[in-house]
Write a structure and sequence with these properties.
Elements lengths: L13 E11 L2 E11 L4 E5 L6 H9 L6 E7 L8 E2 L13 E3 L12 H8 L8 H4 L2 H18 L12 H14 L4 E5 L7 H18 L2 E5 L3 H7 L2 E6 L2 E6 L1 H5 L2 H8 L7
Parallel strand pairs: 3-8, 3-9, 6-7, 7-8
Antiparallel strand pairs: 1-2, 1-4, 4-5, 9-10
Helix pairs in contact: 2-4, 2-5
This protein binds adenosine-5'-triphosphate and magnesium ion.
Length: 268
């Protein structure tokens, strides 16, 4: 079911990709003429392996260079003046409210769970080394939020270390959520998560989208996540977004069934 929307849609951020292309080794892997993400609070981006979904997200974050085209963020609705993301370094994205989780696990080996979460909310505005990570200040400011996440996801020992792939994946998502993004790009957030944790993760995403106006784009092969969270779905194959529509429409579309789902996944 769709999240209840308490933030007016038209002031939510939009991401606009125009004539964006990327090739690797002479092979076109993304070729998007005109795509708007964020017209709905939670959108899915699906497609077969190698369709270009991760590359598309990386192009938005400018962690992969575009061959051509432009990606812009309209921060306060579709008519608001654009911020051109494709001219900006990746580390400026969070400052504009744009945050992405990672398909491939990114975690710390030698930081405790708590420290890794505290570090993610440290402010880097003061660059003197001893001030860069002002532990007391960070703790005072964010400990409560962090504790709430740890309790909600049942981390028994925050002073211990993340061991399993699922825990590491979840911590990456929590670190992103702690940044209170305006737009959250989730690249296969459910991969490696046990079902109950996956469901709790989905609940948090739904809640944040409704209460804080966070817009979400989810890439996921676990289609239960896509069908139950998204209000709108973009279908990508061979580098192009070839279909867009309601989850139900996309799920039953012949092209999606043929290129991706197979007949057993369509329907109920
Ligand atoms: N850095 C790279 N160098 C060369 N080829 C790449 C690179 N990154 C991606 N590719 C290729 O680009 C294509 C699209 O990859 P991408 O990871 O975007 O697909 P995807 O839709 O995210 O797939 P999956 O569902 O398996 O995660 C693939 O053929 C992949 O091998
Ligand atoms: Mg991918």
């Amino acid at each position: 079911m769709a999240a209840e929307t308490t933030v007016p849609l038209d002031t939510r951020p939009r991401i606009h990709l125009e004539k964006v292309a990327k090739s690797f080794d002479g092979r076109v892997v993304v070729d998007v003429d005109d795509l708007v993400l964020g017209n709905h609070p939670i959108e899915g981006l699906i497609g077969p392996n190698g369709a270009g979904k991760t590359t598309l997200m990386r192009l938005i974050m400018h962690s992969t260079r575009l061959d051509r085209g432009r990606v812009a963020l309209h921060p306060d609705g579709p008519e608001s003046p654009p911020i051109v993301l494709s001219e900006m370094p990746t580390h400026h994205m969070a400052h504009h409210g744009l945050v992405k989780t990672n398909q491939v696990i990114m975690d710390f080996e030698k930081l405790t769970i708590l420290d890794s979460l505290l570090l993610s909310v440290a402010r880097s505005k003061d660059e003197r080394p001893h001030r860069l990570f002002n532990e007391d200040e960070v703790y005072e400011r964010r400990a409560e939020d962090i504790r709430a996440y740890l309790e909600r996801f049942g981390f028994p020992d925050p002073l211990g270390y993340a061991r399993s792939a699922g825990e590491k994946k979840l911590l990456d998502i929590i670190r992103c959520l702690l940044l209170a993004p305006r737009v959250l790009l989730l690249d296969e957030p459910a991969a490696g998560l046990p079902e109950d944790v996956r469901d709790r993760m989905m609940d948090v995403v739904k809640e944040k989208s409704a209460s804080d106006g966070m817009s979400v784009v989810i890439v996921e092969h676990d289609l239960e996540v896509v069908w139950s969270l998204s209000e709108y779905v973009h279908f990508m194959a061979e580098g192009r977004v070839i279909l867009q529509g309601d989850p139900e429409e996309i799920r039953q579309h012949d092209t999606v069934i043929e290129k991706y789902l197979g007949s057993e996944h369509a329907g109920s």
